[in-house]
Amino acid sequence: MPPQTTTLQRDDNEHIRRVTGHGRIDDRIDGQTYIAVDGQRFTHSLILTPETVSPWPPRAFAEITPEHVAMLMVHEPQVILIGTGATQRFPAPALLQACMEKGIGVEAMTTIAACRTYNLLAGEGRAVVAALLVEAMQ
């Protein structure tokens, strides 16, 4: 059986960074996952904006700290999407306090859902930041 992957539709706007794929590198159920941005595969968590892609330190949901959220706010987004891995989880309100104080919307969803939502919002020209968790394999 080939590895499980998802290919996302590429938009015609070449000036916007896009998620172009998400999946497992091999066919093992516990195999390492990746996110592809503009065709380049990343096996670590990342911060994605329409202009940039950069590493994001957390490798597990429980590792997300207020400092990691502050890294997202530097981009002055209207909306922050948090991809929480294979399972949807919700950050503690204290983690998002600074976002709420600045009126920044925050949505938590599975990483693949965050990838799709990011592509839609970026394509609409929204000031969106996606924090995409790629969990470390045990």
Model description:
It is a single chain. With 138 residues, the chain is of the alpha+beta class. The chain has a single domain, classed as 3-Layer(aba) Sandwich (Hypothetical Protein Mth938, Chain: A). 19% of the residues lie in helices and 28% in strands. The strands form 2 sheets. A 5-stranded mixed beta sheet has the order 6-5-9-7-8, covered by helices on one side. The two termini are 22 Å apart. The model has no long low-confidence stretch (mean pLDDT 88).
- Mind telling me the C-alpha Rg? 14 Å
Content of β-strand: 25-35%
Beginning-to-end CA distance, first to last residue: 22 Å
Label the overall shape.
Answer: globular
> Total strand count, please?
9
Please tell me the overall pLDDT.
Answer: 88
Helix/strand structural class: alpha+beta
Could you give me the name of the CATH homologous superfamily? MTH938-like
Class in CATH?
A: Alpha Beta
Quickly list its features.
9 strands, single chain, 138 residues, four-stranded antiparallel beta sheet, five-stranded mixed beta sheet, Hypothetical Protein Mth938, Chain: A, alpha+beta
